[in-house]
Design brief:
alpha/beta, Rossmann fold, Helicase, Ruva Protein, domain 3, two-stranded antiparallel sheet, 14 helices, 11 strands, EC 6.6.1.1, Nucleic_acid_metab_PIN/TRAM
Length: 360
């Protein structure tokens, strides 16, 4: 079990910080969703989470239907040895981070221009804003980067860092929105309600407007969040080891399998309950245990894991393809039944009294 000081720090984390921590511990990647009007503030918040909480350099990719493979490849790099946001050429909120270079195709694995990658490395945290709007080939390139943890240059292979997190930042929707295989590769999804606030962004604003909050240090001892993060690499590795040691009893494992079965046969589900999702379900349940200072997974942790694993995967069936139509159901009645039903509704139905029975 983790020491009390680490557990205390974990309990102080916000929802976005916990989502990032879970992915770093599990060595996986995630989808963060929010309202369209709040997406720019969420970008700023996630950048501060990467920098202040985990001490990791980040890169931002602002995707659109015009984003090219070369744009994507160039934007994921950060200046090696330069933690400053303002000095990074990939800082792209108002100034363009796209550089004109020859287009390459992922299928041929053509290299990125070497002149751009000199003295640069792939950022530890990549925030892909509106990734669902990017062309299919760009999303495929993102999937290749996550799966292989490398990208090709003209003279070398640029590896991703050991601590590597890719965040697909989406807005205004539910269910699958990325390409099939990329969507299935994403570990968890989380919706951040703007009403929950942006604590790191608000703290930065307050610090910038309050002279009393300025901490004076001796020369050479200035605070650097990349050197003194709130959650260190050692602590992330400690939680990762505890995750590997976490156990799941036969009864709890059976409950997990029943949830999967109920999801697959639910009349509103057309697909998305894949084998990869099941593997992620297993991993997340064990990952949540040490975060709650437990050495084993409980039924409540299994239910919590289901709520994070499946919302971005579940496809809601079209009324005309709902299985009871094979036996003569009325199309209008089925359409009325399915109206307004989303992935979260399906999950709550399965976790409720009409779904899998919770072990005592």
């Amino acid at each position: 079990m983790a020491d009390e000081s680490l557990i205390g720090k974990i309990h102080e984390l916000g929802d976005l910080e916990l989502a990032a921590l879970i992915c770093l511990v599990a060595k996986e990647h995630c989808i963060i969703d929010t309202e369209p009007d709040a997406i720019d503030e969420l970008v700023d918040e996630l950048e501060l989470v990467a920098e202040k909480v985990f001490g990791l350099p980040h890169a931002l990719i602002d995707c659109s239907e015009h984003t090219t493979l070369d744009d994507f490849a160039q934007a994921i790099f950060t200046v090696d040895g330069s933690p400053s946001r303002s000095n990074s050429p990939v800082r792209t909120r108002q100034d363009s981070y796209f550089l004109n270079a020859s287009t390459f195709h992922s299928i041929n694995r053509s290299p990125v221009a070497e002149s751009f990658t000199d003295n640069k490395t792939i950022a530890n945290v990549i925030i892909a804003k509106n990734l669902d709007e990017a062309p299919k080939q760009v999303q495929i390139q993102a999937l290749e980067l996550m799966r292989t943890k490398r990208i090709y240059t003209r003279t070398s292979i640029q590896p991703a860092p050991k601590r590597f997190l890719f965040i697909a930042l989406l807005a205004g929707g539910e269910g699958p929105r990325l390409t099939k295989h990329l969507n299935n590769h994403m570990f968890i999804s989380h919706f951040h309600d703007p009403e929950d606030g942006f604590p790191n962004l608000e703290e930065k604003f307050d610090d910038g407007n309050s002279t009393s909050s300025v901490v004076k240090r001796s020369p050479g001892l200035e605070y650097n969040p990349l050197l003194w993060p709130r959650i260190s690499a050692t602590e992330v590795e400690q939680i990762s080891q505890l995750m590997d040691q976490a156990t799941v009893s036969v009864e709890v494992k059976s409950y997990q399998q029943h949830i999967i079965s109920f999801l697959r046969v639910h009349r509103a589900v057309a697909g998305g309950i894949s084998a990869t999702a099941t593997q992620h379900f297993d991993k997340l349940a064990k990952c949540l245990a040490p975060l709650h200072n437990l050495s084993y997974a409980t039924p409540s942790l299994i239910a919590l894991a289901a709520r994070k694993i499946y919302p971005h995967r579940i496809h809601i069936v079209k009324p005309e393809r709902e299985r009871s139509m094979q036996w003569g159901s009325d199309l209008n009645a089925v359409a009325t039944l399915l109206e307004g039903v989303g992935p979260e509704d399906v999950i709550e139905d399965v976790l409720g009294t009409s779904g899998a029975e919770t072990p005592l």
